[in-house]
Design brief:
Two copies of one chain form a homodimer. Chain A is an alpha+beta fold. Helices cover 31% and strands 25% of the residues of chain A. Chain A has a six-stranded mixed sheet, with helices on one face. Chain A has a five-stranded mixed sheet with strand order 3-9-8-7-6, sandwiched between helices. In chain A, strands 1-2-4-5 form a four-stranded mixed sheet. The two termini of chain A are 31 Å apart.
Chain lengths: 391, 391
């Protein structure tokens, strides 16, 4: 169950030939309403792909009728023609979805691309694929599954999550890659649907709150993508208007589940690491420290080597502007406090790093705020995958 | 020829047993004057080793008579006793160097440590080693060579450079590791000597200018050490006072030569990469962009894979705050302009990445400033070395 679980949505997929594997590479998600509410968040990289440049503007209306995705080509740094391909895709899909008296405009179609950078994307190939995906549209589970599969690139399996609310509304989601997890093909794409009754402002606020706590804190290799996009469409087909807090909690839970699926499927990784920073003077401090530890090549290689190397953790903490005193910091790895007050604590040989999941806790002893950043270890397989494939 | 090339300096080395290899691990460098001018720069990491905390204060006088180094143990995060070990070392070496009527104070001895973090350093072991190094002091080439060898950790060979000025003064230098090159054992140490006649202010200004253009722009893996230290001692024994510009140029040249030696010996590296950013609105912009590219795991793995992946370069540029327009940026790799105006340029298959040296040029087309940041590729060997050794 996936993006078609909420009422009011149809999905379709097709094979245009953009992936070397020959598997489906075109995915279309349509909101049949009654509402056409939409919100989206995008990479903060200033170097942005053409579909990001388009969709960012298109979603400003707070509405969208469809999300059109191609995998296998990021349509990024493809020259002035790149934007034309994106716009042609939106226009073509709008034409496919509209009916006499119920026209759909190009502006109602968000476009996402993922795959290789710097290689022109052929317009005719994409449009033919969209024809196929439109012809295959449906609201069954299999259609949602097909959508979730067609957006994949280096992922080893589809990633889906669903929230079914007792009050009668639901959320569905599909994700691929991760901006900083599977950047070999340069994109995290997440597509969320809900049949709750929402205003555009509700959708935008809930989406920003949910991504800030989940995808924004996923930092596998510190590399920011040019194509990252998270979309949310609301059909209102359930007729139920959830309380803002309920919506936010459910959306955050679905995003968290998808984020953990992305983490677990990161290219070449052997460990998932939750860097939890506690005792911070502010949440921003906690996030800064968490991100610094999560980005340290030395911390990440140590975890790959199953070495609870707390000295490298403190060295990463020391590069931040967060409030802390070096000789007050504690570090625990999988429950063993290996560093106490900036010095050796419990015996590091007590730490078991054989499991995939790693809990790394840094206590700054500078306040009461906390935050978690998730990352992966840095492995020889990561280097191999990212040196062997041009993207 | 090394730190003993300038007149007025003696060096000594000894084996205290701190390195598993059983090779020399204690190094002592003494300035016999007539001047005792000194300057030093240290890691900007807020988590600093005990010898850094000591030496940073000790050098504030603008004078020093000796630099005492141990390799094999960083004396970092070793609890309150760690500072005592450092201070005892300074005090002990001062006692060894002083004579009745010509006492040397502990404050005249800078202390540096490099090696494993978080493991207590035994005082008696270090002091015995300093006794040995003091007994072996001499001003011959072999003494300088011995000093350069004893400070090494994971380095594969000693790194030395000399400038002999036609005006009758000289500079000598020895380096090990690199703050961000061989961080497995957590330190770049550089020790410079000169027999030029300098004031403390001259020495400090020349050293800061030289390191800002050289070691500060060496960024192998983005990890900042807890122990990085660069020292300069001036004996004045040549009797020659160089022009400030001559001193700055010579000191920068020696630092550049040592920096390139560090780059070439970086753990597990297969390529040295000069990221040259031109057309920047400011030098700070150029450095920020260069550092961002140099720190991108995706750019670095691509170079390891001999792939001139300019899309990853632009993605790294896009994460900066520098002034630029994405669709105006050019990227050249080893002379081939693979990206022109934010789109595909010359055929990337024309790029030859078989040699160790890589010239990567980013033209921002936003001004006339430029800067170079040097880095290495990210290799499976780097991951292996840094996951296999606890440090």
């Amino acid at each position: 169950m996936s993006v078609t679980r909420p009422a009011g949505f149809r999905a379709g997929s097709a094979t245009a030939g953009l992936k070397a594997s020959g598997t489906p590479d075109i995915a279309l998600l349509v909101n049949d309403g009654p509402l056409d509410v939409a919100a989206a968040v995008f990479t903060t990289n200033r170097a942005r792909a053409h579909p990001v440049l388009w969709s960012e503007q298109a979603v400003r209306t707070g509405t969208a009728r469809a999300v059109a995705v191609n995998a296998g080509n990021a349509n990024c740094y493809t020259g002035p023609e790149g934007f034309s391909v994106t716009h042609a895709t939106a226009e073509h899909v709008a034409g496919l979805l509209g009916a006499p008296g119920a026209e759909v405009g190009a502006i109602d179609v968000l476009v996402c691309s993922t795959g290789i950078i710097g290689v022109p994307l052929d317009t005719a190939t994409v449009l033919a694929g969209m024809d196929g995906a439109a012809a295959a549209l449906g609201a069954e589970d299999e259609h949602g599954e097909g959508f979730a599969g067609a957006i994949l690139t280096t992922d080893t399996h589809a990633k889906q999550a669903v929230h079914v609310d007792p009050a009668g509304w639901s959320i569905g989601g599909a994700a691929k890659g991760a901006g900083m997890l599977a950047p070999g093909l340069a994109t995290m794409l997440v597509h969320l649907t809900t049949d709750a009754v929402l205003t555009a402002a509700d959708a935008d606020a809930a989406l920003r709150a949910a991504t800030a706590q989940t995808f924004d804190r996923l930092d596998s290799d510190g590399c920011m993508s040019t194509n990252d996009t998270v979309t949310l469409m609301a059909s209102g087909a359930s007729g139920v208007t959830p309380a803002a807090a309920d919506l936010a909690a459910a959306l955050t839970a679905v995003c968290h589940e998808l984020a953990m699926l992305l983490l677990a499927d990161a290219e070449g990784s052997e460990h998932d690491v939750a860097v939890r920073v506690v005792g911070a003077a502010s949440e921003a401090d906690a996030v800064e420290v968490g991100r610094s530890v999560a980005r340290s090549a030395l911390v990440k290689t140590a975890i790959f080597g199953r070495d609870p190397n707390w000295g490298r953790v403190l060295a990463a903490v020391g590069t931040t502007t967060a409030e802390f005193e070096p000789f007050e910091v504690d570090v625990s790895v999988n429950g063993v406090q290996v560093c106490r007050a900036g010095g050796p604590g419990e015996d590091r040989s007590l730490v078991d790093l054989s499991a995939r999941w790693v809990d790394l806790v840094v206590d700054l002893h500078a306040g009461t705020e906390a935050a978690t950043v998730w990352t992966n270890d840095l492995t020889t397989a990561y280097v191999h995958e990212n040196s062997a494939y041009s993207s």
